[in-house]
Amino acid sequence: MSETIDFDKVHEMAGKVMHDVAGAVSLMMAYMGDQAGVFAAMDGEGPMTLEQLVGKTGMEPKYLREWLGSVSAAGYVDFDAENETFELPPEKALIFTREGQPACMQGFIQAVVAQFEMHEKAVDVFKTGKGRPWSDHSNCLFCGTDRFFRPGYAANLVSTWLPALDGVTDKLEAGAKVADIGCGYGSSTVLMAREYPNSTFVGIDFHEPSIIEARKQAQEAGLTNVSFEVATAQDFPGDGFDFACIFDALHDMGDPVGAARHIREAMKPDGTFMVVEPMAGDTMAENMHPMGQIFYGFSCMGCVPASLAQDVGLGLGAQAGQKRLAAVLNEAGFSHVRRATETPTNMVLEATV
Ligand SMILES: C[S@@+](CC[C@H](N)C(=O)[O-])C[C@H]1O[C@@H](n2cnc3c(N)ncnc32)[C@H](O)[C@@H]1O
Question: Is position 102 within any domain?
């Protein structure tokens, strides 16, 4: 069969790929600048010459020069060609270096770098259809995931998400028993425990290294109303919970129905289950935008392999959408599921019996 090639379309696609390659290189530069402390060294300094930055960081000027060239060309750093100076203005410092600020994107960047770091494994499971346990990722992914999600939780969880649920904050004020399942580094658990000292919180995750980090966080925060346990969502111990929550983890589970059923059984009959999931429409057609591009990609590399590595292996994916998630929750015995609130990146579902 002969084919006719439209070279305008070839050029157009090549331009797009060039743009994406530039972006990929810039993410690596941003990650290196973060890990080496260069952005931090530039924050608040105003315009700096290469020599001044070398003086402040003690780094090798030949590397720094190339790095500055790349991040300036990317627009991550402002370059003044006349004076040959480089500046990280506050708006860019918020994105690249101010840890814990809602605008800080270094965790997001780190999560991408972590995927490239272990690309052979990603290719292997993609080719073979095997599962890949969550624990089989680079350490950089676990802290990157926490760094990526934590600012959003800090900005929204206590101020908006919990108050959007029916009657939950009253229970938390009075003293409730709470489980945070698939808690990872426990940032969400620690935020809630700090806000509600009358309540007791347990964070549960089957990934022991994450639970060790979570315990450290709680200890550093000086909290006595929170503990962390290594257990699976389908059979963690304890019962009588007033409130259970799960942040960006239900779709990673092999058996989300079994997990949600166990959570329902561990809760009081009038308990509330909050499910935070990535924002997504119900059909693939609704997710054809940069967030869809990102989440389907992470899902292909991390979420679906993590699910396929577990019993049942449902592989919901990170763009399951509310309809599919509600079906999972209904099957687990939650008859009422509603979207309590949302952000551009997350939907917050409230499930009750
Ligand atoms: C994407 S991470 C999210 C972690 C954390 N909730 C956060 O928002 O930062 C998904 C988490 O789910 C945990 N997980 C996946 N399947 C699990 C299961 N069946 N039981 C317990 N934890 C599970 C993983 O270990 C991982 O920490």
Answer: no
